[in-house]
Write a structure and sequence with these properties.
The complex is a heterodimer of chains A (206) and B (376). Chain A has 206 residues and is α/β, with parallel strands linked by helices. Chain A is built from 9 helices and 5 strands, in the order H-H-H-H-E-H-E-H-E-H-E-H-E-H. Chain A has 2 domains: 3-80, Methyltransferase, Methionine Synthase (B12-binding Domains), Chain A, domain 1, CATH 1.10.1240; 88-205, Rossmann fold. Chain A has a 5-stranded parallel beta sheet, sandwiched between helices. Chain B has a single domain (3-371), classed as TIM Barrel (Alpha-Beta Barrel), CATH 3.20.20.210. In chain B, helix 15 (298-305) links the parallel strand 9 (289-292) and strand 10 (310-315).
């Protein structure tokens, strides 16, 4: 692990993080090792968020830094086929809701955490989630919504998933989501922030 | 009792609540706007298109619930408020959405980083003049604004004639909120880290014009109160170093300007503001109202500000949609007990959602009347 890179990430020093990744690549370091340091930096960001030292704006900036800094790594790893994922997740904002901010934060964090995320976008009907699960073999589905009207869309999506017999775990999240909403919808977990989504996903893949 | 006498009684009760004096009965206020359409059987498309009908429906909903006040009276087309607040395209029922589907603000980067410099060099209105055609049909905007200009002064007297107090009408917000909408939240937040001085220069240039326009409209609407809107600037979303620089100083400017004009600031603060509640101690005592949406810790609010600021709220949207009447009654009872008969105007936290169950909303009002009386 590269401690300087981890600290640059966790301190949200964008220029330094981008520069360090470039330097290590040019020095011939293994891209997977560099990526691991970037991911550790993101983990530190997540811990600071859970400790209420960082806030959503910090998560957004961290996501942007991760995207910018790791872009050169993607090309190297795609060429070598050496990117192993922790698991596959289908994610989307449910039908009737076009909000994407929360979803994008969670998707970014899940990707940084090593998951392969299939982002279906916004206003996604239930059968599109089913189709994506069947096509990708994902075992986890994430449903996002900011409006209270999203509850019924989430409920319908869970019902349709259950009816088709696909074996998936469903997490829900978004501004108005609570434990009571989770029960109403029939989901397996709910999260009030992106870090919870990452923790739940990690628990589910073991 | 005549409508005017009823109005005076209710008005005085609300003023005493703002001054944190004991009242014989806790005031109860209504806030639609989306629920207004459903509750009165009006398609959302009509509510959005016909400002006259929307005003009449709002009055009908308030009277049907038999409450004495309205939190914020919308005069004009609802989409206009959303477009001008967040500088964003709004999907409108009956236009881009089915006739009875809730309107939605489209989160998309339209404002560019170069626009910060444009604002700094040219001012806020010139920026709006070139920005709005990118997010809304100019003819729609012109027609909607013209209606407001012609009818601004009609809403408050209409409610007064029916004995109902309008706590606020019109809203101001900080450049942070406007620009966050125009840039899209992710891009704007990243701008604050990458180019803080550039963003702040634009905010400082925009502020005098935002204040002038907002206060002029609030005066024309004539409620004696105006919203000071906070949504994406909430403490739960924004890092302290950003909040201290780009959020709070601008709110202080708005609140000070409103108080100078004898307009009560209603701090309509959605999301979680708990971390920075202590900053509200900087505000003059017994002059402002905090209107949270159920996400801010109201026990912390009571501890820090119970002797300085009244609260309007805060029955959560999720409870009114997914809860039961018993859940709502329990929430109201706890709320009333917490405030002990002073400093509370019972209301939903933020607008009652479009899919709120009418029985839940009616239970909120009934519980407010039952638990909120005779504590003196």
């Amino acid at each position: 692990m590269n401690e300087e890179l981890i600290v640059a990430f966790s301190d949200l020093e964008e220029e330094k993080a981008v520069r360090l990744v470039k330097e290590r690549l040019e020095a011939g370091d293994d891209p997977m090792v560099i990526l691991a340091s970037c991911q550790e930096g993101m983990m530190q960001v997540g811990k600071r968020f859970e400790a209420c030292e960082y806030f959503i704006s910090d998560l957004m900036m961290a996501g942007e830094i991760f995207k910018m800094a790791t872009a050169p790594l993607e090309a190297h790893m795609a060429a070598s086929g050496s990117r192993e994922k922790r698991g596959k997740i289908v994610f989307g904002t449910v039908k009737g809701d076009i909000h994407n901010i929360g979803k994008d934060i969670v998707v970014g964090l899940l990707k940084a955490g090593g998951f392969e995320v299939f982002d279906l976008g916004i206003d996604v009907p239930p059968d599109r989630f089913v189709q994506a699960v069947q096509e990708t073999g994902a075992k986890i589905v994430g449903l996002s919504g900011l409006l209270t009207v999203a509850y019924d869309s989430m409920k319908e999506t869970v019902a349709v998933l259950n009816a088709t017999g696909v074996k998936v775990k469903v997490m829900i999240g978004g501004g108005p989501v609570t434990a009571a909403v989770k029960e109403y919808v029939g989901a397996d977990a709910f999260g009030t922030n992106a870090q919870v989504a990452l923790r739940v996903a990690n628990e589910w893949v073991g | 009792m005549s409508s005017e006498a009823l109005y005076q009684e209710r008005h005085e009760r609300i003023q005493k609540t703002i001054r944190l004096e004991p009242v014989g009965r806790i005031p109860i206020a209504y806030l639609g706007p989306a629920f207004t359409a459903r509750y009165t059987g009006m398609p959302l498309a009509e509510y959005c298109e016909d400002a006259e009908a929307a005003l009449a429906a709002t009055l009908a909903a308030t009277k049907r619930l038999d409450v004495g006040a309205i939190n914020s009276l919308v005069v004009g087309r609802m989409p206009l408020i959303l477009i001008t607040s967040w500088l964003s395209h709004v999907k409108i029922p009956g236009q881009e959405l089915p006739s009875d589907e809730i309107w939605q603000v489209e989160e998309k980067e339209v404002m560019t980083v170069e626009d910060y410099d444009f604002i700094t060099e040219n001012g806020w209105q010139p920026f709006l003049d070139k920005h709005f055609p990118k997010v809304a049909d100019p003819a729609y905007l012109q027609e909607s604004i013209a209606w407001v200009m012609a009818n601004a002064g009609r809403g408050v007297p209409l409610f007064r004639e029916n004995g109902i107090v309008t706590i606020s009408s019109g809203a101001l917000t900080i450049p942070f909120e406007h620009m966050c909408g125009g840039r899209s939240m992710t891009s704007f937040f990243v701008d604050l880290y990458r180019m803080p001085d550039r963003v702040q220069a634009a905010m400082d240039r925009a502020m005098p014009e935002i204040l002038a326009a907002g206060i002029a409209l609030a005066k024309a609407l004539g409620a004696g109160g105006a919203w000071v809107g906070g949504w994406r600037a909430a403490s739960g979303l924004v890092a302290p170093k950003l909040w201290n620089r780009f959020v709070w100083p601008y709110y202080l400017q708005i609140i000070d300007a409103l108080l100078t004009e004898d307009i009560t600031p209603v701090l309509h603060f959605d999301q979680d503001w708990t971390r920075d509640l202590v900053r509200l101690q900087e505000l003059p005592a017994k002059k402002c109202i905090l209107n949270p949406d159920g996400m801010t810790d109201i026990r912390k609010f009571k501890e820090l500000l119970g002797d300085r600021i009244a609260m309007l709220g805060d029955v959560p949207a999720s409870l009114l949609s997914a809860g039961t009447p018993d859940d709502v009654v329990a929430y109201v009872r706890d709320l009333v007990n917490l405030f002990g008969g002073r400093g509370l105007i019972l209301c939903s936290g933020c607008g009652i959602p479009v899919n709120a169950k009418p029985e839940n909303v009616e239970a909120m009002v009934a519980a407010g009347k039952e638990f909120g009386k005779a504590r003196v």
